[in-house]
User: Fold these one by one.
Assistant:
Number 1:
Amino acid sequence: MKRPIIYAHRGASAYAPENTGSAFTKAIEMGAGGIELDIHMSKDGHLMVIHDESLNRTSNGKGLVKDLSLDELKDLDFGSWFDSSFKGERILTLEECLDLLEGWDGILNVEIKSGPILYDGIEEKLVKVLSEYKMIDRTIVSSFNHYSLLAIKQLEPELKTGILYMAGLVEPWIYAQRLGAEAIHPYFFNIQPPIVKGCKENGIMMNPFTVDKAEYILAMARAGVDGIITNVPDIALNTIKALDKGV
């Protein structure tokens, strides 16, 4: 049985502040085969690696990412909220993140955060950066805004896309094919036998999120998913290794 790729969700976000250099470095050290991150856009048009549209939860700043310039965002502390040992952690641009990942040979999953705030031109900027870094063939772009995924396909048909969703869609592989997407990225409770069968028969990858408990990781692996998005890549990797040993 083919084993799933383990994607570190916002990096190894159970052990370091999410979407930061520390979290990504930790994920690589743990052996993650994939890294998932999120992008918003700053006031002056930079792609910023952060999950929320607001700065309030993961920094010592207030307000929205879109209302601050790159320099203003760089002045903020994105580590202390998680633990004092990460004090002074700075937000990354997508380019800085890709520089950090140089030499790592895994798969990148970039989630476009496009809603409730819409960022004009974010898809074009993302394709440009991925092209410049020669990452088109090693990236899956995902989003809950499926219009963004359609835009990505129009801009760069070779760039893989993954449809993020929460609800229990019927025959999601048909919807994925309609959008030209290569993958579905459902909340993991939606991985049911008919969906596994339909996706496998139609060549659609399944990368469920966010799977942190060993028993659920094991269930996803046994179901035959292609990737598992998790906050705890070490636990996921050890669980998969145990499966290989027949435990």
Note: The first helix runs from residue 21 to 30.
Number 2:
Amino acid sequence: MSFFGVIICGMAVGFFKIAAFGVDPFQSFMSGVDKLVPIAFGTLYVIVNVCLLSFSLLCNRHMIGLATFINLFLLGYITQFSYAILQRLLGAPSMLVRVICLLIGIIIICFSSSLYMTADLGVSTYDAVALTLSEKYKIGRFQYVRICTDFICVVLGIVLFMLGGGNVKEIPAFVGLGTIVTAFFMGPLIEVFNVKVSGPLLNETTSQ
């Protein structure tokens, strides 16, 4: 569950990028960092997540596990690879294809997050922030804490993108409809997948 969750999460971001309606909030932050720092995206993703890993090490080590490191070292490169493949297959996609890619991206990123969160073998360094704030520090329910952290990521992404010399017209490609949908609905959708799919799947496999 952990490994499959991380793999399809990277694929989901590839779909978001090809749709160009905005990526999920953390990836919008990464887009800003990518514009500011001239390093290959896969490597940059590892560096940023190593920084976020320190938060979990200090505040909630339970969140760190196998899936954390699979996510840390593979997700950026899987995203880079998936996006390149989709570009070759789809070329310049029509509006309809872009909408379909957006819907696919939203569904599978929520499903993938639910898989590796429920497996409880560690979560991504970014997911660990909202989970720690909601479960350990009891700031609020995960769904609402996640909305807040997502909002902060989007704002930081835009600021960093502009500081990196980005054009305002380029912002909708990484902060748009897809970003808004995931920022406000990703937490609740993950919870739905937890209850309807991932939880029952884990219970079924562990009972065998």
Note: The two ends are 16 Å apart (CA to CA).
Number 3:
Amino acid sequence: MKILIFVWIFISYINIFAQDTIYLDKKYKTISNRDQAHYLRVVKQDPDNSKQVVKQTFFKNGKFKSEVIYSNYYGKKKIVEKNTVWYENCQIHVVSNYKKGKKDGYFISYWENGQMKRKDLYKKGKLIEGKCFNISGEEVAYYDFEIQPEFPGGKNALILYLKESINYANISSSSKGQTVRVQFSIDTDGSIFDVKVVKSHDAITDYEAKRVIQNMPKWKPAIQDGKKVKVKRTVPITFK
């Protein structure tokens, strides 16, 4: 069995380099150097259906990382039919099914040992029923697959913080009513990092907007499939 698995991986690895391959770094950004790549990606079009595409991403060793099947890849909005994600040990992590771009059918995730972790049933994007299990296969209290990060106290507390934190001492009257958009990342401990302006007004308002975001208290981190994960968010700051 181990020999067969090795042969399958070896053939997959050869097939990757036999096609046009996109090289990606750890953050899935495209790079040109294969030796520095963390992931490899191949996008294959169905010869009988120009809209249907399979996007496969591999670990550098040739093992599957993910496979996304699109019923319409080249439209204004890509429509996913099925998404499968693997752990690096070749065990499937997540299998999700879609219909017209919405979750439809079973959404299943697994622990790295192969034990089922959750089994959710969706209909037109709505959760019908779901169950969660521990690593030993015992059912546990249900929890959402994705839990969004939250500013301490919620959205209203964030609005109040932004309003009270802006220092208008150096802001000119011509900047009143202008909006600066700031992108930032929330780490697994809730701390803020990688703050940058993505919509600028001028140097002074940009600096002040970044300062306010950098000084935010820790957020409740995002959670995906029971694990804390890093996420990016963008906040508009309007100078009134």
Note: Confidence is low (pLDDT under 50) at residues 1-18.
Number 4:
Amino acid sequence: MLNDDYDLIDNPTPRCACMLVLDVSGSMTGDPIDELNRGVKQFVDEVSADDFASNAIELGVITFGGVVLEPVSMVPLHQVEIQAFSAGGQTPMGEAVTRAIQTLDDRKRDYKNAGVSYYQPWLVLMTDGAPTDSYEAAAARLKHIAEQKKVLVFGIGIGDYCDFEVLSKFCPSERPPKRLAGLKFVEFFAWLSDSMKRVSTSTPGTEIALSSTGGWETIGI
């Protein structure tokens, strides 16, 4: 167990891992990256302000723009320090999703080893374009585990040039991707923070993780 994971022993609160997989490629330059930064900061601030949720929710961030990076490892949200993202490069979305799946699998194993209860993790995939790498295997794997209820996947398309046909290949059939209306990142992350806080007060193993996403139908256009 890593030193950081002693928190799992000191704080046995049931956990819910939330992974943000964010497109920061060159096409996100300007207002899109600025609004994304605002939205993610708001999400962290709002959930951190909730004493219970800040210990129950763990956040990881993977970005893909030229290269795939993990600026935030999977840690309790109250420990997260967000640095502003910058835009540049191409869109290696397949590699980013593969890394996200592995990170979530590893974290679930940590929970099991520490005897900590957990909710099925959430994965938010946001992009304004289409992958520039080989993405098919990653998309098929993510869709498969989502449809097996092993992870809740939320696909968000940004702007007018997102390839929704491709994005839908990463998402379960019962929850197709949504187009973000305008650049309403703040509104989306407000919905996400509210949903995560409600999940954190539920009982692991119940269907609350799904029922709490009822507002999902209001996201988008």
Note: The helical segments are 7-10, 31-48, 51-56, 93-114, 136-147, 164-167, 185-200, 208-211.
